[in-house]
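User: I'm curious whether this sequence folds into something compact or stays loose and floppy. Could you predict its structure so I can see for myself?
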Amino acid sequence: LFPIMHTLGIRRALVEKHPWLPVAVFKAFERSKAIAVAKLADTSATKVTLPFVEEQLRAARLLMGEDFWSYGLDPNRHVLSRFLQRHHAEGLSARLLAPEELFHPASLELHKI
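Assistant: Here's the prediction. I'll summarize afterward.
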């Protein structure tokens, strides 16, 4: 398991007022990630102060696949399931939640289109 490092929440009141917002935010973050990864891979002028960045990037991709910072439910289902199991087992939630409950319904359809 590669732990999820960041999450993003949108207030329910905002989503009720702007139902398009979850998908728009998701797409914006996906685009931003694509730009960041492309810049990271461009080593003609290194963007980070990591020694041997090309080798580190290659090793990360070999170990974790091309999309090692995956977004959304499907690529993270196993991590979210484990997190929710531990969350419930430690008494932090009254019931065991399903990973789908963490996402707005519109965002669940995003990758099926």
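Summary: Residues 10 and 25 are 9 Å apart (CA to CA). The chain has one domain: 12-112.
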